[in-house]
Amino acid sequence: MSWNLILPLVIIVAMFWFMSRQQKKQREQQQTMQNSLQKGSSVVTIGGLHAIVDSVDTAAKTVDLDAEGVILTFELSAIRTIKNPVAPVAEKPTVDDLKPAETVEETEKITDDTDKPSDSK
């Protein structure tokens, strides 16, 4: 075999090795990004949708995104980037927290004498 045939083959093998190495790094980076998803994180999908993570299902590999009140379900692989996570919002009071007061103060009932019927006989 001549060097004219071996040199291009070596270059092609080196290119394939280099490309597979880069793809492996990108896959690992994508996997760590998907594992770091949590509720409240702001994300951008591959379609350009900006939304906030509502829930993550690692078993089904899906994520529910809240886009201005609309909940959408996407595959984890559809998340392109994760922005800085949103600061946790203080919990809103639930119905159980809004109980009526234990004691009720009695108030005087004010009536006007003109509203009462007269006792004329």
UniProtKB/TrEMBL annotation:
Which residue ranges does the record annotate as region Disordered? 92-121
* Membrane-protein topology: Single-pass membrane protein
Q: Where in the cell is it found?
A: Cell membrane
Q: Which residues form a coiled coil?
A: none
Feature: compositional bias, Basic and acidic residues? 93-121
Which key words are in the record? Cell membrane, Membrane, Protein transport, Translocation, Transmembrane, Transmembrane helix, Transport
Mostly located where? membrane
Identify one Gene Ontology CC term for this UniProt entry.
plasma membrane
Please list the GO biological process terms of this entry: protein transport
The family assignment reads:
Belongs to the YajC family.
Put simply, this protein is called Preprotein translocase subunit YajC
Which organism is this protein's natural source? Leuconostoc falkenbergense
Gene of this entry: yajC
